[in-house]
Design a protein that fits this description.
By secondary structure, this protein is of the alpha/beta class. It is built from five helices and five strands. About 25% of the residues are buried.
């Protein structure tokens, strides 16, 4: 019974799977082609699920979410691609609900067959430091 935002949703892989669990799902991406794809795919959902699924085009600087709109934010394999992460997450921190959960899942810091090269991956300690600078607390 929460509003969940999938930032960097891409094709909506996770966003579409969250519909059955959430009150509302907002899938956000900066790529207009992905946004178009998700909007087209949304039309294939049952009507009750279409009503609680929203797609938004954002920018690399602004996730385009409203004040207090998010109970939870999911970011999968997107963190490393944000150009000014501390500013971005300060902005995000000011928008989400006070006790909202932020879940970040990133590529492992080892050579794997998919994903970016090792030098483009962000170590977990860097993620923690940047989130603290952005105002987040209780980081696990």
């Amino acid at each position: 019974d929460k509003t969940v935002i999938d930032l960097g949703a891409g094709t909506g892989y996770f966003a579409f799977r969250l519909i059955g669990q959430a009150k509302k799902v907002i899938a956000v991406d900066i790529d207009a082609e992905f946004v178009r794809f998700m909007r087209d795919r949304k039309k294939l959902l049952p009507e009750d699920q279409q009503e609680k699924f929203e797609v938004r085009l954002a920018t690399a600087e602004d996730p385009m979410i409203g004040q207090g709109e998010a109970d939870a934010v999911l970011i999968v394999n997107t963190y490393a691609y944000l150009p000014d992460r501390i500013a971005y997450f300060k902005h995000l921190h000011g928008k989400i609900k006070e006790n909202a959960k932020l879940v970040i899942i990133e590529f492992k810091m080892k050579n794997i067959p998919n994903g970016p090269p090792l030098e483009e991956k962000v170590p977990i300690l860097t993620v923690e430091e940047e989130l603290k600078k952005a105002g987040f607390q209780n980081i696990e």
